[in-house]
């Protein structure tokens, strides 16, 4: 496990990325400090900048402005730093004409810290045939192969960009279970980008909500959930709240209003009893505020699906 003085997994200061002179601003004024030893969930709608942030972290692209360090150094600063990061891109790309065994052989040639015993053990555990070509594998099997290759580098950080989105529920469960087994075995940190909040809830203990190219909220999942609440009152009754209470999103249903609020420790007494929020409510509140959406109380799921 990482030491208490380990550098942050990610440290961004005013990080920005724009594609082309007149292109889209993919990231803007991103400021983050993510501690080591965490499993980080990165959520947000399509076009929010999730893949851009992960590609920056892997050194595949350069920022337009600001700075980013990964494990205390510039991304892909040298061969040693590259070996510390394992990356599984969208659609878990593998070489269709290569066998499973040939993938492991290639991994061994390209990675000085390659753990062949770990790779072979994991291949056996998930039931992959070393002689089978990757192009003949199912989506779940390809995901397991890509995960094994990334982990057999024995990295300090595993990065996953929507790796399980196209998998069926059973394959996705197996992928996430193996992901967590690798994190524990390697003592690594992990970043998981996903549209699927169920996946984030299962495995992640740190959350980053990215929307409209900016970080809307980030922090320890338990701290975020205890620091937010749902208030229910008559319409207009939530217009004035004590100092230290920030309204993230207000929704109206008939004569009543529902508000998701963030509370400082020094916040004054609330006019109505606070109710706990779910992770989905919290994420949707920040995403809806960023997108300027007007949704009803019964529209939470539909709003999430619309932004996917």
From TrEMBL:
Keywords: ATP-binding, Nucleotide-binding, Transport
GO molecular function, one term: ATP hydrolysis activity
SMART domains per UniProt: AAA (SM00382)
Record-linked Pfam families: ABC_tran
InterPro entries, A to Z: AAA+_ATPase (IPR003593), ABC_transporter-like_ATP-bd (IPR003439), ABC_Transporter_VariousFunc (IPR051782), P-loop_NTPase (IPR027417)
Domain ABC transporter span(s) in chain numbering: 10-237
Name of the protein this chain belongs to: ABC transporter ATP-binding protein
Organism (species): Amycolatopsis orientalis
């Amino acid at each position: 496990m990482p030491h208490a003085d380990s550098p942050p997994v990610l440290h961004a200061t005013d990080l920005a990325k724009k594609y082309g002179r007149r292109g889209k601003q993919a990231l803007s004024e991103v400021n983050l400090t993510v501690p080591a030893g965490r499993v980080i969930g990165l959520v947000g709608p399509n076009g929010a900048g999730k893949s851009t942030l992960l590609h920056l972290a892997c050194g595949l692209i350069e920022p337009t402005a600001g700075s980013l360090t990964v494990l205390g150094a510039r991304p892909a600063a040298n061969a040693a730093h590259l070996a510390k990061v394992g990356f599984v891109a969208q659609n878990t790309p593998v070489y269709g004409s290569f066998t499973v065994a040939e993938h492991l052989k290639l991994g061994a040639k390209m990675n000085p810290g390659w753990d062949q015993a770990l790779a072979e053990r994991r291949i056996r555990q998930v039931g992959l045939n070393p002689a089978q070509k990757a192009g003949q594998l199912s989506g779940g099997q390809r995901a397991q192969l890509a995960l094994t290759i990334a982990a057999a580098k024995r990295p300090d950080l595993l990065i996953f960009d929507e790796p399980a989105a196209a998998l069926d529920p059973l394959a996705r469960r197996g992928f996430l279970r193996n992901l967590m087994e690798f994190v524990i075995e390697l003592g690594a940190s992990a970043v998981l980008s996903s549209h699927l909040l169920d996946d984030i809830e299962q495995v992640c203990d740190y959350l980053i909500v990215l929307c409209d190219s900016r970080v809307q909220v980030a922090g320890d999942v338990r701290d975020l959930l205890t620091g937010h609440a749902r208030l229910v009152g008559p319409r207009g009754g939530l217009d004035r709240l004590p100092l230290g209470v920030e309204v993230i999103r207000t929704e109206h249903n008939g004569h009543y209003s529902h508000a998701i609020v963030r509370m400082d420790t020094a916040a004054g007494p609330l006019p109505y009893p606070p109710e706990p929020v779910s992770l989905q409510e919290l994420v949707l509140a920040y995403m809806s505020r960023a997108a300027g959406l007007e949704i009803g109380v019964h529209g939470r799921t539909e709003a999430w699906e619309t932004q996917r």
